[in-house]
Amino acid sequence: MVKTLVVIPARYGSTRFPGKPLAKIAGKEMLLRVYEIAKKGTKNTDAHIVVATEDERIKKFCQEKGIECLMTSDKCKTGSDRICEAVQILGEKPDFIINLQGDNPVCPPNFVAELIKTFEEDQSADLVTPVTQLNWEELDELRENKKVTPFSGTTCVVDKDNYAQWFSKNIIPAIRKEKELREKEAKSPIIRHIGMYGYKYDALFKFSKLDEGQLEKLEGLEQLRFLENGMKIKVAKVDYGAFRGSMGGVDSPEDIKRAEELFEKYGEF
Question: Residue 26 in contact with residue 116, Cβ under 8 Å?
Fold first, then answer.
């Protein structure tokens, strides 16, 4: 069985939403919801779950709830850097390390389980990340969103063995004869990336020492550094089920209401 570490980065000092991890969603703190997702997603596995924060208020909350918490620096440039620091503080050497963002309380627990399962089946992968195939309605919605916010939403192309070939803020691949394809297929060929990562231990620390890539800078996508340096990214294909097409993380107070509406409509995990 793969020894897994789940790190939940929870930063109090968000510019757009200070104190975000402790904001309540339908009466329960967002960070507690994410921790419960991690617990459900790692059921029956050899997993260790820890919160990584830069703030004493979050540490105190974790202590009150019986959640293990580490204090990390507020100088980390990327999420991967914070994960590296947390692993170094723990002094452990897990096989697989999952970065489960503390501001994503609507992440289905089975996404965590699928990352672990995918890595167990192919431990040659340096990174595992989830993707979901869009239906035509969702593709149309993504196209409309990009007219307003062109850098929202990341798409991915994969090979026959489910290794990622590329990620982009553009919608890739282009679709020839789309009208004919829509008549034959229920889903589009577009795969949308979900920003959640599971790292092989050695690959995480190799990544942290690499310089930012040129294409990574252009696209603004951290995972491209792996591909630019010949590292292997395996995708785990997942489905939101009832939550299909739902929001990603909570970035603003307005998103709290959206999350509550989703739980009211679909139920909680």
Answer: no
